[in-house]
């Protein structure tokens, strides 16, 4: 497609840089979202060439790019949908900013049907094994108090203690891994046992440390890592004192799961799914679970109402026993 007459030339690389700057400054997106956008846009740059005229990108190129993602890159539907959504937002911004005459997405039907998958939860046995392994690695047993946890934190492998804290916090709050590593020390109120989270779309919410032992672990971790943290105020830190990343947390959980003898791959998002499902199965109202997880739509939370076969079988058994008793 030839360049639109009367429009200044801007190459694809420049357009992507300007859009990311807009997302960082005007939209105030999180570092995690900016990284994801950056990865998606780099892939598009490689496909069309960074020096291509952004105003010359047309529907045919977008369709070819869509085919490339599915057929050459063999990406899953969720990954393709994310990459195309990122492009659509960028081109819409370029149109509004009058950098291009019209978005190539205008009246373009690129709906991607996502397969319906149930959330991947941990079984109760897997949760027990993960917790037991995490505790054994640091030498904690019995009732956990802040004093006991602090003593252990100071003498044990720093990453092993981080793994324990990360595991407990994710299981009781249902945080996304990106939200977890974005927590600063100032976001944690240990008196009220509340953590303030900046979630997707810069929406702020609060999550809670519901029991004494989790609160004790968080408090001890905060105290034990203070000297190692140095100038930054990130809550999750590595053994060398740098802020923990999402990949760091994933590796900690993977190592713990392997040591616990769990053969399948355990991810932070599985802990989020597990937290949500357990809360619903224990009677918490779905609107409260929606608020805790930071879902904008209740329909997103509703996927967790699909209870496990074990829970369903047990519930049916209890109901059948009551009916026989009434008879």
UniProtKB/TrEMBL annotation:
> Does the record carry DNA-binding as a key word?
yes
Q: List UniProt keywords, sorted A-Z.
A: DNA integration, DNA recombination, DNA-binding
Q: Which Pfam families match?
A: Phage_int_SAM_1, Phage_integrase
GO BP: DNA integration; DNA recombination
Give the Gene Ontology MF terms in alphabetical order.
DNA binding
Domain (Tyr recombinase) spans 117-317
Q: Which InterPro entries match?
A: CB, DNA_brk_join_enz, Integrase-like_cat_sf, Integrase_catalytic, Integrase_recombinase_N, Integrase_SAM-like_N, Tyrosine_recombinase_XerCD
Core-binding (CB) domain spans which residues?
A: 10-95
Instruction: Provide the family line.
Output: Belongs to the 'phage' integrase family.
Full protein name: Integrase
């Amino acid at each position: 497609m030839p360049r639109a007459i009367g429009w200044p030339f801007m190459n694809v690389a420049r357009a992507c840089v300007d859009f990311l700057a807009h997302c960082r400054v005007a939209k105030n997106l999180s570092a995690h979202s900016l990284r994801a956008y950056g990865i998606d846009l780099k892939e598009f740059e490689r496909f069309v060439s960074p020096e291509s005229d952004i105003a010359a990108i047309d529907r045919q190129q977008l369709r070819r790019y869509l085919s490339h993602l599915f057929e050459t890159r063999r990406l899953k539907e969720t990954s393709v949908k994310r990459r195309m959504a990122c492009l659509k937002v960028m081109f819409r911004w370029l149109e509004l900013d009058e950098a291009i005459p019209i978005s190539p997405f205008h009246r373009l039907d690129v709906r991607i049907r996502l397969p319906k998958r149930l959330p991947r939860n941990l079984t109760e046995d897997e949760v027990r094994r993960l917790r037991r392994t995490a505790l054994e690695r640091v030498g904690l047993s019995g009732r956990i108090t802040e004093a006991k946890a602090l003593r252990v934190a100071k003498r044990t492998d720093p990453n092993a203690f981080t793994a324990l804290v990360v595991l407990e916090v994710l299981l009781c709050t249902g945080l996304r891994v990106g939200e977890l590593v974005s927590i600063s020390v100032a976001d944690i109120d240990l008196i009220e046992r509340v953590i303030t989270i900046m979630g997707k779309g810069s929406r702020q919410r609060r999550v809670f440390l519901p029991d004494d032992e989790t609160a004790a672990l968080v408090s001890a971790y905060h105290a034990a890592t203070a000297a190692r943290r140095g100038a930054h105020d990130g809550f999750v830190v590595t053994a060398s004192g740098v802020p923990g990343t999402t990949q760091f947390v994933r590796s900690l959980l993977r190592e713990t799961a392997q040591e616990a003898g769990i053969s399948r791959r355990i991810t932070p998002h599985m802990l989020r799914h597990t937290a949500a499902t357990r809360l619903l199965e224990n009677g918490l109202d779905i609107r409260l679970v929606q608020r805790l997880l930071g879902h904008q739509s209740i329909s997103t939370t509703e996927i967790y109402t699909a209870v496990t076969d074990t829970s369903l079988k047990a519930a049916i058994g209890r109901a059948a026993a009551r009916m026989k008793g009434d008879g």
